[in-house]
Amino acid sequence: MPRTDCIMRHLPYFCRGQVVRGFGRGSKQLGIPTANFPEQVVDNLPADISTGIYYGWASVGSGDVHKMVVSIGWNPYYKNTKKSMETHIMHTFKEDFYGEILNVAIVGYLRPEKNFDSLESLISAIQGDIEEAKKQLDLPEHLKVKEDNFFQVSKSKIMNGH
Ligand SMILES: Cc1cc2nc3c(=O)[nH]c(=O)nc-3n(C[C@H](O)[C@H](O)[C@H](O)COP(=O)(O)O)c2cc1C
Ligand SMILES: Nc1ncnc2c1ncn2[C@@H]1O[C@H](COP(=O)(O)OP(=O)(O)O)[C@@H](O)[C@H]1O
Ligand SMILES: [Mg+2]
């Protein structure tokens, strides 16, 4: 079982990285696209940050900051052999953003990763996570992270030059 005090010690956790291709299941099978981070970003996570489902804030390149949910782990339903970190942003984008920089601030923990008997139950669990995250993120302590300098830096010229 994840030790909540261990997890919370690292939050908020900020990171950025280029969006890479995963297995293409997020949008095609689940109807919930997830922007996947490269292995390097996953390897740089603090060793004692538990796998599981988290929520927070995200922006793409120098774009607006949106609510997000992120899954860190091996996706037991799919039995992945590599640990992944995948972010679903609660926003409708006009097009895919592979290759762009994704900026992420994780602020809270929702639950451990689970296996499910059916795709339908995986999808409804994820939809439940999204609803819970939306509620939690309206709390003042979480809303303030949206304004963090971390996201301001991503809007600066330095980042736009890439
Ligand atoms: C909020 C959220 C919760 C998730 N929870 C689980 C889970 O409990 N078990 C699991 O096997 N996968 C879970 N996933 C991961 C999905 O299985 C994953 O997004 C899907 O396999 C897409 O993978 P892909 O990006 O490689 O295509 C979750 C994803 C999100 C965004
Ligand atoms: N709201 C969104 N949240 C996350 N990714 C999105 C969103 N809208 C579009 N995308 C795009 O969808 C891609 C993820 O789709 P997905 O089916 O999970 O494929 P993959 O397996 O390649 O990660 C992201 O890399 C991004 O380019
Ligand atoms: Mg994905």
Report low-confidence residues grouped into runs of 5 or more: none
Order of helices and strands: HEHEHEEEEHHHH
- Classify the helix fraction into a percent range: 25-40%
The outline comes out as globular
Q: What small-molecule ligands were found?
A: flavin mononucleotide, adenosine-5'-diphosphate, magnesium ion
Keywords: ATP-binding, Flavoprotein, FMN, Kinase, Metal-binding, Nucleotide-binding, Transferase, Zinc
EC number: 2.7.1.26
Organism: Macaca mulatta (Rhesus macaque)
InterPro entries: Riboflavin_kinase, Riboflavin_kinase_bac/euk, Riboflavin_kinase_dom_sf
What does this structure look like?
The structure is a single chain. The chain has 162 residues and is α+β, with helices and mostly antiparallel strands. It has a single domain, classed as Elongation Factor Tu (Ef-tu), domain 3, CATH 2.40.30.30. Helices cover 31% and strands 26% of the residues. It contains seven helices and six strands; from the N terminus they run αβαβαββββαααα. It has a six-stranded antiparallel β-sheet. Strand 3 and strand 4 form a beta hairpin. The radius of gyration is 15 Å and the shape is globular. The N and C termini lie far apart (41 Å). The mean pLDDT is 90. The site of adenosine-5'-diphosphate has 20 residues, from helix 2, strand 2 and strand 5. Pathway: Cofactor biosynthesis; FMN biosynthesis; FMN from riboflavin (ATP route): step 1/1. This is Riboflavin kinase. Keywords: ATP-binding, Flavoprotein, FMN, Kinase, Metal-binding, Nucleotide-binding, Transferase, Zinc. Its EC number is 2.7.1.26. One of its GO terms (biological process) is reactive oxygen species metabolic process.
